[in-house]
Amino acid sequence: MKLGKTGIDVSRIGLGTWAIGGGPAFQDSDDKSKSIATIQQALNYGINFIDTAPAYNFGNSETIVGEALKNNREKYTIITKCGITWERKGAFFNKVGDRSLYKNLTPKSIELELKESLKRLQTDYIDIYMTHWQAVEPYYTPISETMAYLTSLKEQGKIRGIGAANVTAADVREYLKHGDLDIVQAKYSILDREIETELLPLCKENNITLQAYSPLAMGILSGTISKDYVPPKGSARNGKKWFKPDNLAKVVAMLDKWKPLCDKYDCSMANLAIAWILAQGTNVNVLSGSTTPEELAENSKAKDINIDLDDVKYMRKLAEELD
Fold first, then answer.
1. CA dist., res. 251 & res. 228, Å (int)
2. Which of 19, 61, 231, 258 minimizes the number of CB atoms within 10 Å of its CB?
3. Across-strand partners of 78?
C-alpha cells in the first residue's frame, strides 16, 4: 500500500517494537539477539514497515532497531516518534519503574529528541516522524507550532513524512490546516472500535493511512489466553478493560464462535483478528507487536487472508454483543 501522500510503498502489516524494547511494562524481558533476528527477518515475511519510539524503554527499542537495520536501512520504512521525554521537563505522562515520562512537543525538545533518535537508529533520516502523544497544559504547544517545525525538518530532508498518534478527529483537522499528515496511529481492534465513529472516516477522506495498534487487544484476541488468566501486577495488561474477569470470560466465549472461521480460512485466531482490521479499508494498516521470528511468521499470514463480507459482518455482530 502507499503510505499516505508520501508515495512510499509499505507492507499492510508493520512490526511494532514496544515489547522488543523490554523494560518494566514487560517484566524486563529483553532478549536482544532474538529481537534483532525478528526485525531482520521481517523482509522474509513481506514486512518492511518498522515502528519504534524513544519512550519504549528509554531508547532501548530504537537502539535495537538501529543495530538490526544498520546494514539494510534502505529496504525498510521506519517510524519513530517525538513528544515523550524523560530527559526534560514537560507535562507529566506516567512513571515507568523509577523514572517519569513527560509530554513535551516544543520545537526545541523535538530538535533534541530527533538528534538522539538518529544516533540510536544509526541513520541520517527518519521516514515517518510522529508525535507520540499530544501536548497538554502546563506545557501545551499549539499544533500549528509543532507542525511548522516538523514541516521544516521535512524540507531539510531529515524526515520524509509526518504522523500523529493518539489524536482526536479535531486534532487531525488542526494538523491538516498547517501541513500534510501522512499517517495516524490509533488503538483499534474488533474489541475497541471507537475510532470508527469519526477518526477513521476522516483519515479515509484525506488520504491518511490509519495504522491500528494493539490489534490483538494486548494478546487477548490471540486465542491463547484462558478465561482464568490473571495479569501480573505491574504488567501492561493489569487493570485493562478486557482483562477484567467478567469481560475476559465473554471474550473467550466469542473466540469459541470464531473457530469455524479459522477452519474456513485455515488460520489462527490472531490472523483472523488482524485480517478483520485490514478488511475495514484500503488505507488501513496494522501494527503487530511480534517479539520473536516465530510470532512474526505467524502474524504476517494475516495480510494474505481475504475475509468474505458476510464473515466480516458476523464477526462485528459478535463483538457488538459484548458491548
1. 12
2. 231
3. 50
Local confidence band at 24 (pLDDT 50, 70, 90 cut-offs): low
Q: Please give the torsion angle defined by the CA atoms of residues 78, 193, 236 and 59, in that order, rounded to the nearest 10 degrees.
A: 20
Contact criterion met (CB below 8 Å) for 303 and 12: yes
Query: What is the grid cell recorded at 153?
Result: 525538518
Q: pLDDT of 58-107, one tens digit each? A: 999 999 999 999 999 999 999 999 999 998 999 999 998 889 999 999 99
Domains of the chain: 13-322 (3.20.20.100)
Pairing between β-strand 84-85 and β-strand 99-103 as defined by DSSP bridges: antiparallel
Q: Do 229 and 248 touch, CB atoms closer than 8 A? A: yes
Closest Cα to residue 39, out of 295, 238, 221?
A: 295
Alpha-helix runs per DSSP H in 169-244: 169-177, 199-205
Q: What is the spatial distance between Cα 28 and Cα 166, in angstroms, rounded to a whole number?
A: 25
In this prediction, residues 22-32 reach a mean pLDDT of 61
Burial of 318 (0-12, 13-18, 19+ CB in 10 A): middle
Catalytic residue (choose from 45, 56, 76, 149): 56
pLDDT tens, 41-50? 999 999 999 9
Model confidence, pTM: 0.93
pLDDT at residue 115, rounded to an integer: 98
